[in-house]
Write a structure and sequence with these properties.
CATH topology of the largest domain: Beta-Lactamase
Helix content: 55-70%
CATH superfamily of the largest domain: PAS domain
Shape: rod-shaped
CATH architecture of the largest domain: 2-Layer Sandwich
CATH class of the largest domain: Alpha Beta
Number of domains: 4
Strand content: 5-15%
């Protein structure tokens, strides 16, 4: 080959080598992308299967039924196939042994008086015997025959009906037959196409068939092709029948489950619609079985609930209307009485001491009565859905300072200290300042009232979306059961406790409604003997949703060591 030819042939190879380093990273990225898609698909399928397993009773029962039925079918199929195979081979082996014994008797009559010293005579007699045995046939099916004349340790060339059989005879079988016994053994023997096939080999000596110096042996080869076809057909039939039976049992399980689960699902859907307020929803009653009785009982329960809810709604509306009407009706006489009480209170210096004291008490109780009426009117507005917010950007720190300054005199009377913590930067939120200030006033007043002359901590903090104020006292605290009712109307933890702030029992209920109106949270934590903490959280932007609060609801409790005296 010339130098030019080598250059021409080397050109494409060199180009491939130069392009390979550039294509290899692209190939790797493609492989990684395909592997990533395969992983994502696997995770998606796995997640879907897990979700279906958890959420669907049909899937669970169908899968369990299929696994159990499949296991039983496999075990039964294996046992059945093993018994059929054993019985089929046993019948084959018995027929083969009987045929060999008949062949031995026939061979004995054919080789009587054989001339052991004449090799041609021996060969002719053995081949005649083999041909005669083949022509006789037998009940064991197709077979081949090998006849061997053995003199001591020397074997004459065998006579056979098909070549390739004699070299494939196992040594153990030859040794056993040479010892004078009849033996059978399974082995791989080449067929007419020289392909190894499973074969049943049976060997037996021919008694009296030669002189004392030699022995004639017969070997039968029974191919197991027909038995293999039969076993293959049985195997396929059993496999198809097992799969069909498994699917049939699983289908029955799913069908039975559906018959039971569907009414339960309908009951669950009806119950959910009832919970959503659709009190006219009822289940359809079909038949007279247990599910029909369940539907009848469910409908009776729904009727009872509807009657009771309707009665409660009527009573609630009556109570709300009564509260609203009474509040409005009492407003006019209260204003008149308060004007007269104001005149008396301003002139109390001209009265005797006991009359002046009565004027002061009348003025204080009328103020308290006015606050109660204001709370009742506010509650009636919430019940009627007429409460609206006056949004405005407001500095929450200014509200906290105004509330604590206004409550300082009350705190001084109770001997407690107000500790205020605010961030340096202003916390601006779009809120109704009047309502937020009312919430804080209620919380601080309650903390002073129940703080047992211990410090009350007021903390303000903010994050990117929300502002929060916590009011912490170290007084009597709240149990978990009391914390669940602290925002109920007219509820008090200890009705016998003397109160000096408010007294209507509506302050926290109104505060909760104010917080909800802002789209905020008002939450409480308490522990008996440790104190309580209320947390108000409002969004900084009006109408936005809250996801978290900048302050924890549960405070850090510092255990002070006991002082020994």
């Amino acid at each position: 080959m010339s130098t030019g030819d080598r250059a021409v042939l080397a050109g494409p190879a060199e180009a491939v080598r130069r392009r390979l380093p550039r294509d290899l990273p692209t190939l790797r990225r493609g492989v990684r992308r395909r592997a990533g898609r395969a992983r994502r698909l696997t995770r998606s399928l796995t997640a879907g299967a897990v979700s279906a397993w958890r959420s669907s009773l049909h899937v669970r029962i169908g899968a369990i039924t299929m696994v159990v039925a499949g296991t039983v079918v496999v075990i039964v199929s294996l046992v059945l196939f093993s018994q059929i195979r054993t019985q089929l081979l046993a019948v084959k082996e018995q027929a083969a042994v009987d045929q060999v014994q008949a062949g031995v008797f026939y061979a004995q009559s054919e080789v009587v008086g054989i001339a052991a010293g004449d090799a041609a005579s021996v060969r002719t007699a053995l081949q005649r015997t083999v041909d005669g045995l083949l022509s006789r046939g037998g009940s064991a099916g197709d077979f081949a025959v090998v006849a061997v004349y053995r003199t001591g340790d020397t074997e004459r060339p065998p006579a056979f009906s098909r070549s390739g059989i004699y070299p494939a005879l196992p040594d153990g079988l030859r040794a056993g037959v040479a010892g004078g016994g009849q033996y059978a053994q399974y082995a791989m023997v080449p067929n007419a196409a020289e392909e190894p096939r499973p074969t049943l080999l049976v060997g037996a000596p021919v008694p009296g068939g030669a002189s004392s110096a030699g022995q004639i042996e017969l070997y039968y080869a029974f191919p197991l092709d027909q038995e293999e076809e039969t076993l293959s057909l049985i195997r396929s039939t059993v496999a198809i029948s097992g799969i069909a039976l498994t699917l049939f049992v699983a289908g029955i399980g799913v069908l039975v489950t559906r018959l039971v689960v569907d009414p339960v699902r309908r009951a669950a859907g009806t119950a959910q619609r009832l919970a959503e307020g659709q009190l006219e929803e009822r289940m359809t009653v079909r038949g007279e079985d247990d599910l029909a009785r369940l539907a009848t009982s469910f409908n009776a329960m729904a009727d009872s609930l509807q009657r009771q809810i309707t009665q409660l709604e009527g009573l609630s509306q009556l109570q709300q209307r009564f509260t609203s009407d009474v509040s409005h009706e009492l407003r006019t006489p209260l204003t008149t009485v308060q004007m007269a009480a104001d005149v008396l209170h301003e002139s109390r210096g001209d009265f005797p001491p006991h009359v002046a004291r009565s004027a002061e008490l009348l003025h204080e109780e009328l103020d308290r009565f006015e606050r109660l009426l204001s709370d009742l009117l506010e509650i009636s507005r919430y019940d009627a859905g007429a409460a609206v917010l006056d949004w405005a950007p407001t500095d929450l720190g200014v509200l906290v300072a105004r509330v604590t300054d206004g409550m300082s005199a009350l705190a001084a009377r109770h001997g407690c200290e107000l500790q205020v913590t605010c961030p340096r930067d202003p916390v601006i939120a779009e809120v109704d300042a009047r309502r937020v200030e009312r919430i804080l006033r209620n919380l601080v007043g309650n903390a002073i009232e129940h703080g047992t002359a211990k410090p009350v901590e007021v903390t303000l903090a903010a994050n990117r979306t929300a502002g929060a104020v916590t009011v912490r006292d170290h007084g009597v605290g709240l149990s978990s059961a009391e914390a669940q009712h602290v925002f109920d109307r007219f509820w008090r933890a200890d009705p016998s406790r003397v109160r000096t702030v408010g007294g209507s029992g509506l302050g926290l209920s109104i505060s909760l409604e104010d917080a909800r109106l802002h789209g905020g949270w008002l939450q409480v934590w308490g522990q008996p003997g440790v104190g309580a903490q209320f947390r108000l959280t409002v969004p900084l932007a009006a109408g936005s949703d809250l996801t978290s609060s900048p302050l924890p609801l549960r405070p850090t409790i510092v255990r002070r060591p006991a002082v020994r005296r």
